[in-house]
């Protein structure tokens, strides 16, 4: 089967959740014998066309000129789709779905949309303007969680929406062993993600001022970069927590398993999420998880089973559950086993098999 995957940004330069997921979808679909083409925006550092892991990357120019630049970008994507002549077009986000819509109308190519989270929970004005047209015309719309599905069926037909979660390369995390939680006085809490307002890392930093009073040897490691970094560093200084909170900056994706292996607990304090890849990575690493009860997170993080969910924007609630886990090694050991077992359901082999079945159903 010939598949065109459309995504705005792509590795190796861009390594947030959607970009990593798209890379793995392309890689594993190609492993299954499909001809896979990724169409993305061009960066001068990389060639216009190249082949990696048995799939082809097509990079098209995106001039940042308001309106004209965007329209030109869509047009170039449409031209690439025409050249590739795929059996199906797969769009990685509602916000970039217009080329898929036009490929159906002008080239008679079916398309699917895989919603990512922010395009459903925090859509910008443009996404809201186009989402009814692009969602209703899609052959299928993929939601990451039941909660996301419920949001989407308010816009498009119920039968259009199916649930397929993000996947993970399990073997990358099996090669690292998590530190023993017992008999360790020094504990490490880990956050991995882009430092932007929706991640609400400021509440985790405030929670650390509570945690540090009871467990002074506890550290918080913040892996990632973004527009909030300077504000967060200022908050750390203001709370006098420089000795226990450390920023690593942007990290390559291959380093994440190593950071996970050094941690005792994973914290994600977001105020809005779909079903982030990093939660599944934490599960595969056997880490107990403390996160917020937003989006699809309560569907994957069950209280006392593999971690805890708390109200968003509450440093006190975050601190309470983090302390409970760090001080209860028996509970952490149980959660470690549960998470490692549950993570097996999210292997990219299984996820892309489900995706391939959807493609075949549509094309047939």
Q: How would you explain this protein's 3D organization?
A:
The chain has 364 residues and is of the alpha/beta class. It folds into two domains: 2-167 and 347-363, Rossmann fold (3-Layer(aba) Sandwich), CATH 3.40.50; 170-345, Rossmann fold (3-Layer(aba) Sandwich). Helices cover 43% and strands 18% of the residues. The protein is built from 15 helices and 14 strands. It has helices at 17-31, 68-84, 98-107, 118-121, 125-137, 146-152, 170-174, 201-214, 229-238, 256-261, 277-284, 297-300, 315-326, 329-342, 348-363; strands spanning 2-6, 35-41, 49-52, 55-60, 88-91, 111-114, 140-143, 161-163, 187-192, 218-223, 245-249, 265-268, 289-292, 307-310. It has an eight-stranded mixed sheet, sandwiched between helices. Helix 12 links the parallel strand 13 (289-292) and strand 14 (307-310). Helix 1 (17-31) crosses helix 15 (348-363), helix 2 packs across helix 3 and helix 8 packs across helix 13 (315-326). The longest helix has 17 residues, at 68-84. The radius of gyration is 21 Å and the shape is globular. The model has no long low-confidence stretch (mean pLDDT 91).
């Amino acid at each position: 089967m010939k598949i065109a995957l459309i995504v705005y940004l792509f590795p190796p330069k861009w390594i947030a959740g959607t970009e990593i997921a798209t890379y793995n979808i392309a890689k594993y679909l190609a492993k299954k014998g499909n001809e896979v083409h990724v169409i993305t925006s061009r960066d001068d550092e990389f060639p216009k066309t190249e082949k990696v892991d048995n799939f082809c990357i097509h990079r098209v120019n995106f001039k940042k000129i308001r309106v004209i630049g965007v329209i030109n970008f869509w047009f170039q994507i449409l031209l690439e789709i025409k050249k590739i002549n795929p059996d199906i077009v797969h769009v990685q986000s509602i916000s970039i779905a217009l080329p898929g819509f036009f490929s159906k109308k002008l080239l008679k190519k079916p398309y699917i949309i895989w919603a990512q989270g922010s395009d459903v929970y925090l859509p910008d004005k443009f996404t809201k303007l186009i989402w009814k047209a692009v969602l209703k015309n899609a052959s299928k719309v993929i939601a990451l969680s039941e909660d996301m599905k419920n949001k989407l069926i308010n816009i498009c037909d119920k039968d259009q929406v199916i649930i397929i979660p993000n996947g993970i390369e399990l073997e990358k995390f099996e090669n690292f062993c998590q530190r023993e939680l017992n008999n360790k006085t020094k504990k490490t809490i880990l956050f991995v993600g882009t430092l932007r307002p929706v991640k609400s890392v400021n509440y985790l930093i405030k929670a650390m001022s509570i945690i540090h009073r009871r467990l002074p040897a506890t550290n918080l490691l913040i892996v990632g970069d973004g527009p909030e970094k300077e504000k967060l560093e200022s908050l750390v200084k203001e709370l006098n927590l420089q000795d226990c909170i450390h920023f690593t900056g942007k990290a390559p994706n291959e380093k994440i398993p190593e950071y996970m292996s050094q941690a005792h607990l994973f914290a994600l304090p977001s105020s809005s999420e779909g079903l982030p890849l990093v939660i599944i990575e934490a599960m595969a690493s056997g880490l107990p998880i403390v996160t917020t009860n937003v989006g699809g997170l309560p569907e994957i993080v069950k209280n006392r089973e593999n971690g805890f969910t708390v109200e968003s924007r509450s440093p006190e609630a975050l601190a309470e559950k983090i302390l409970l886990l760090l001080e209860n090694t028996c509970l952490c050991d149980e959660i470690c086993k549960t998470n490692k077992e549950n993570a097996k359901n999210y292997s990219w082999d299984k996820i892309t098999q489900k995706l391939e079945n959807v493609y075949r159903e549509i094309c047939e």
